[in-house]
Amino acid sequence: MTETREADAAAAPALPVAGGDTVTGLLAEIAAIGVDRVRGGYSRPVFSSAEHDLRAWYLAQASKRGLQVDTDRNGVIWAWWPGEPPVDTSAPAVVTGSHLDSVPGGGAFDGPLGVASALVAVDLLRARGVRPVRPFALTVFPEEEGSRFGVACLGSRLLAGTIDPDRARSLTDLNGDSFAEVAARNGLDPRFVGADPEALARIGTFVELHVEQGRGLIDAHQPVGIGSAVLGHGRWKLSISGEGNHAGTTLMADRKDPMVAAARLVVLVRDTARAHPRARATVGRLQPVPGGTNVIASRVDLWLDARHMDDAVTASVVAEIHAGAELIAAEEGCTVTLTEESLSATVHFDPALRDRLATVLPGAPVLDTGAGHDAAILSGFVSTAMLFVRNPSGISHSPEEYVEDSDAEAGAAALADALEALLISPVTDTARETV
Ligand code: GLV
Ligand code: MN
Ligand code: MN
Fold first, then answer.
1. Ligand 1 pocket, 151 CB below 6 A?
2. Which of 16, 93, 203, 408 makes an SS bond possible with 66, Cβ 3.0 to 4.6 Å?
3. What is the pTM of this model?
């Protein structure tokens, strides 16, 4: 502890300290929520009962720490450290957070690790007697994975105004329920979702801690790393239409089977990505309509996820796949349409903030990532950084995703170190100075 911190600790207001919570302990508290007995792992889609229970748990944890909790009109939860002196309430805030929703059959750490680490970081800052001079908040963003309504980072996109609210309202889930309907059933007023410049302007610096979703930290033999960039990525829906018919009575020569076209298209996706070094392209979801064992499908919808550090390469990969899909569809007597559902350019986090964190966390390797994050959406508007925590399986979006207990605690301590440096950094220009 520094001398300043010791002196400040004596004068620190008597705020509740949760005390004793570890990241592993907090994650254990939610380990039974959203377990998917069919797929394995966790399925915690936004506005499901599992996600509702996670939010309730989070609100209780934030309240227990004396944080002032508010859910905004986009469903983003904010938990504010009390703004007592020496906090300069007019200064831009330091904000940290992540998400609680998951992909179908996902792991325990993608999202919740950052949420639990932020709570533990609050405890560590309190225990160290840190007295922020800047506003400080924790956040939880809804629908980061886009696994219910198809658009990843929907909450942060709405907040930042990078998605048209009309489009967001009309997104539908697998049951055909619109985001507007589901949001309304869950306490939001869908008329008011969308850009929130006031909330965005309060953020000066955003730091998201996340489980690493690759092998960078395994190879570097380090528990914690600092993010440098997020690969550009997008999602496209391909709908192949053919002719629905009877599996027993339709001769093979007479078929217009979109499932056969879809199978060829999946291989084309792989081969196209392989032809572009460092590109990634995936078909992880495919839906035959109507979907019966003895039915030739009339239509197959499949979703393409494509990524590359160079946005022009991503565009070429998608264009090549689209052209190839049209050829394949024609050969199979079908037609195909391609619709872009979301697209995010490659993001480089604020280099000054990254370098600052590198001085606070000496030895932490600097890594880019192929996974999307709310931090990447926010980085278009505020100074943003990420911390990654080692995942010894190197696997994510799967029940195999993993974090050792000691690494989880090292991650929270690193987050607390980073936040401390940012929170006590003097506010020299009270107008709009960021750290
Ligand atoms: C989210 O994790 C994504 O990268 O799609
Ligand atoms: Mn995530
Ligand atoms: Mn994810």
1. no
2. 16
3. 0.93
Which residue among 98, 100, 103 has the greatest number of ligand 1 atoms within 8 angstroms of its CB, and so is best to mutate?
103
Dig out the tokens for 8 from the structure: 């400040």
Q: Is 372 in the pocket of ligand 1 (CB under 6 A)?
A: yes
Residue with CA at minimum distance from ligand 1 atom 1: 372
Q: Using an 8 Å Cβ cutoff, are 41 and 106 in contact?
A: yes
Return all residues near 179 (Cβ < 8 A) that are at least 6 apart.
149, 154, 168, 169, 170, 171, 172, 173, 190
Cβ(238) – ligand 1 distance below 6 Å: no
Give the distance (Å) from ligand 3 centre to CA of residue 156. Answer: 14
Backbone angles phi, psi at 325, to 5 degrees: -65, -35
How far away, in angstroms, is 341 Cα from ligand 3 center? 17
- Give the pLDDT score at 84: 87
Name the residue ranges covered by the structural domains of the chain. Answer: 2-231+346-429, 233-344
Q: Which residues does residue 368 pair with via DSSP β-bridges, in sequence order? A: 229
**pLDDT (tens digit per residue) in 37-85:** 999 999 999 999 999 999 999 999 999 999 999 999 999 999 999 988 8
* Alpha helices, H only, 1-75: 3-11, 23-29, 49-64
Query: How far is the C-alpha of 31 from the C-alpha of 81, rounded, in Å?
Result: 27
- Check the annotation: does 175 bind a ligand: no
Q: What are the tokens at 401? A: 């995703």
The reply, when asked if residue 233 is annotated as ligand binding, is no
CATH class of 2-231+346-429: alpha beta
